[in-house]
Design brief:
53% helix; two-stranded parallel sheet; single chain; mainly alpha; 8 helices
Length: 139
Amino acid sequence: MSVFDNIKKYSKNRGMNLQQVAVAAGLSKNVIYQYNKGKSPSIDTLKKIASVLGVSAETLLGNQDESKTTTNNEAKKVNIEELLDGTAMLTDRDGELTDSDRAALRALISTYLQSTEGRERLKKYSNMELDDNGGNGDD
């Protein structure tokens, strides 16, 4: 299979069209179609696309079967505390969340991710699942 065919295959597996993949990778929306006409993506571009699709660049090149790579088959674990740290920049308090902000966001995110829809979206779009603590990061 060509790089284009592999991108198309894994895009379909993720429920995304090629334009959505390109935009999610920070590329122009029609750039992937150029690979069907013989143009090859740069390594950086290939890595961005692979990241969006949850596979390795080697898999997209056809050098490695995704089903044989344990790193791609094992879902990453969501840690809600890490998500909260990433949302801190949305505040007007120099990137710091108050304890009450953190608690409210933690409850909201945890509730959503534990719902059927939340779990399905998490797996479909990010190849992730809740950690054993419901994403709270508590060991």
